[in-house]
Amino acid sequence: MSVAKWEVEIYLLDSSILEAERSQSRIDHWALPFITNSEILGYQMVQSYPNREPVYSIVFNDIARDRLRELDIPVCCGRHFVIAVDKKPVLDGYFWSTYSSYSCDFLVIEVSSLNIFEIRNGYPKEHSFGNLPDPRRNRRLLQAFQKTKRLLRI
Questions:
Q1: Are 4 and 86 in contact, with CB atoms under 8 Å apart?
Q2: How many CA atoms lie within 13 A of 128 on its CB side?
Q3: What tens digit of pLDDT does each residue of 35-66 get?
Q4: Least confident residue range of 7-16, 38-47, 101-110, 126-135
Q5: CATH code for 8-153?
Q6: What are the residues facing 43 on neighbouring strands?
Q7: 75-103: b or e for each residue (b if 16 or more CB lie within 10 Å)?
Q8: Domain ranges of the chain
């Protein structure tokens, strides 16, 4: 049994990776992280209005923000990513272009010029998870940010 390091990293997924490979318990065989643990400054959830979905955000340093802004993101379908804690996937979604007119029913990080990126459930409109748990509140993800003192507001 390995000791938790609580490292949060973001990996880009190749569109040719099969669903079964994406859901494996570890991602040791994948490429280097696109955004490293040291480039992720924090994670937050803000409940702005009663009876509305909370806003989840991840905060990157300038280096990660610039790398993300330079990423080639297809307007039609985004760039698939996975967020992993200690190389174990905890959630996946798509980096999405701000000028895309296509919709997406999955988790989306809309790329902008800011360092704070919202993790939205759908684009352009948020969707409900219904009775399913919200993956943005993944216990392991929240633990990793809490243990490393990067859980900004929840």
A1: yes
A2: 4
A3: 999 999 999 988 777 777 788 999 999 999 99
A4: 126-135
A5: 3.30.1360
A6: 58, 151
A7: eeebbbbbbbbbbebbbbbbbbbeebeee
A8: 8-153
**Number of helical H runs and strand E runs in the chain:** 3, 8
- Distance, in Å, from the CA atom of 21 to the CA atom of 8, rounded to the nearest integer, reads 20
Which two structure tokens, joined as six digits, stand for 94?
Answer: 């798509």
Non-local CB neighbours of 103 within 8 Å, separated by 6+ positions: 122, 123, 124, 125
Q: What is the DSSP letter of 66?
A: H
Question: Distance between terminal CA atoms of the chain?
Answer: 30
- Name residue 135's amino acid: P
Q: Which residues contact 90 (CB under 8 A, 6 or more apart)?
A: 83, 84, 135, 138, 140, 141
